[in-house]
Amino acid sequence: MKGPPSRRSLILGAAAAAGSALLSGCDRLGNAEWFRRTLKTGEDANMFVQRLLLTEAKLAPEYAESDISPWFKPNGTEDPPDRTYKALAKRKFADYRLEVGGLVETPLNLSLAELRKLPVRAQITRHDCVEGWSCIGKWTGVPLSELLNRARLKPEARFIVFHCADTMDQGQDAGGEEAEDGGEPAGNANPSMTKQSGAGESKRDAGGQQAFEDSAAEGGSPVRFYESIDLVDAFHPQTILAYDMNGQALPVSNGAPLRLRLERNLGYKQAKYVMRIEVVESFAHIGQGNGGYWEDQGYAWYAGI
Amino acid sequence: MFRHPVIIRITHWINAICLLVLLMSGLQIFNAHPALYWGKVSTFDTPLMAMSSTEDDPPKGMTTVLGRNFDTTGWLGSSAGSDGEAVDRGFPAWATLPSDQDLTGGRSWHFFFAWTFVLNGLAYLIYGLVSGQLRFRVIPSRDQIRQFGASIREHLTLRFPQGDEAKRYNVIQKLAYLVVLLVLLPVQVLAGLAMSPAMNAAFPFLLTLFDGRQSARTVHFVLAALLVLFVIVHVVLVLLSGFWNNMRGMLTGWFVIERRVEPLPSQGSTGKTA
Question: Which residues form the Cytochrome b561 bacterial/Ni-hydrogenase domain (chain B) (predicted)?
Answer without folding.
Answer: 3-253
